[in-house]
Design a protein that fits this description.
elongated, six-stranded mixed β-sheet, alpha+beta, about 180 residues, 2 helices, single chain, 2 domains
């Protein structure tokens, strides 16, 4: 959803939008929407800059980082962002970052792409690791069985760095 800024009223603009999973490309972030993503907020001018405030909410699903089981999480996220026109970039496309640049994004062609904003905010606020439960045991690295559901009889290989110690322990137990 593109929001044109040239017709932005002086008192700002309210927006509301609902995204279906097919509306956003979340494959790079390995996320799936369990329910439609709703975003609502306001866009207003702050001098030459644009301020976008709002809230997005949905339920996402992703694979557990240990056992690959489906994990879902509710997202309810407020955001408050500033945009400035993309006029300050030098001719060669490089710019020295200032402290304020970390708090600002840029807009081009007098428009803000709400889709980009939503995907960015969602990706930045999803936990780096998602587990199906805190004590998830994961998958056996030998046979691939889900260790939360069953045990396996695989013999775990000894880390080569500890092999000398294992050999010493075996020799000592054979002496007795």
């Amino acid at each position: 959803m593109i929001i044109p800024l040239q017709s932005l009223p002086d008192d700002g603009l309210r927006f509301e939008h609902e995204y279906k999973e097919s509306d956003l490309d979340l494959r790079e972030h390995e996320l799936k929407l369990v329910e439609p993503l709703r975003v609502a907020g306001t866009i207003s001018r702050a001098g030459r800059d644009i301020r976008v405030r709002g809230r997005l909410g949905t339920q996402i699903a992703r694979a557990c980082d240990r056992c690959l089981a489906a994990v879902s999480q509710t997202i309810d996220l407020p955001f408050d962002l500033f945009y400035e026109p993309n006029e300050t970039v030098t001719v060669d496309g490089e710019k020295e970052l200032q402290v304020k640049d970390l708090e600002f994004s840029v807009y081009e062609n007098d428009e803000i792409d709400l889709d980009e904003l939503v995907v960015e905010q969602l990706a930045l606020n999803v936990p780096a690791r998602m587990l199906c439960r805190d004590d998830c045991r994961g998958l056996c690295d030998q046979c691939g069985i889900d260790l939360n559901l069953a045990s396996c009889n695989c013999e775990k290989p000894i880390d080569p760095r500890w092999q000398a110690l294992a050999d010493l322990r075996e020799r000592e137990s054979n002496k007795n």
